[in-house]
Amino acid sequence: MTVHNLSSESSILNKFLAEIRDQNIQKDSMRFRKNIERIGEVLGYELSKSLSYSPKKTTTPLGEKSIELISENLVLCSVLRAGIPLHNGLLNYFDDAENAFISAYRKHKDAHDFTIEVEYLASPSFKNKTLILADPMLATGRSLVETHKALLKNGTPKSIHIVAVIGSSQGIEFLENNFPKDTHLWIATIDQKLNENGYIIPGLGDAGDLAFGSKL
């Protein structure tokens, strides 16, 4: 798997990351969602450089111009519910893409032991298409692996791009061992460890709760 870590270079992305981590700014859920969306736009722009393009003529009022446009069939798939703002950011740039949504959550046996439950999937076929799989928090990596297994029921993608905001080194290693070797991971920043419950440290907390409110 090829890892594209955007935090390896300083950019305006740092501002958005600082704000989603800040426990005071986090209290504004609308701003939290907007910052995740903006991070999705930045990640989408960088991802777009790796896609295939072909020339297409565009007619202006004064003539014609050949422009290189994306030639791949894209499907954006977000992991509910935390992935929705990230999905929106990607959709702002890949507005011709098809869309898919899948649920994945931790079902705890106790504080340290959990399974990943996938209960909902709405998607087109993935056969011979480019899958962009969006999940803001890459902690253990188990949710994305189980999500990928479920998505294969609707066809095998030609290629896979994973888009995440914050990930752990352990989670990335898990993906490397469980996704196709030619998978690309586009990530805004990487934290080095997980706590005993499998949450990213320092991370930012629960992205779904911060975006949409706490759940039972």
Major pleated sheet: 8 strands, mixed
The number of domains is: 1
Query: Which bin fits the share of residues in helices?
Result: 25-40%
CATH arch. level architecture: 3-Layer(aba) Sandwich
Tell me about this structure.
This protein is an alpha/beta fold. The protein has a single domain (2-50, 75-212), classed as Rossmann fold, CATH 3.40.50.2020. Helix content is 30%, strand content 33%. It has six helices and 14 strands. The strands form four sheets. Strands 1, 4, 5, 8, 9, 10, 11 and 12 form an eight-stranded mixed β-sheet that branches.
Can you give me a brief rundown of this structure?
The protein has 216 residues and is an alpha/beta fold.
List strands and helices in order, with pairings:
Elements: E1 2-5, H1 13-21, H2 29-48, E2 53-60, E3 63-70, E4 74-80, H3 84-93, E5 98-103, E6 105-108, E7 114-117, E8 121-122, E9 130-134, E10 137-138, H4 142-151, E11 159-168, H5 169-178, E12 184-191, E13 193-194, E14 200-201, H6 207-212
Parallel strand pairs: 1-12, 4-5, 4-9, 9-11, 10-11, 11-12
Antiparallel strand pairs: 2-3, 5-8, 6-7, 13-14
Protein traits:
alpha/beta; Rossmann fold; 8-stranded mixed beta sheet; 30% helix; globular
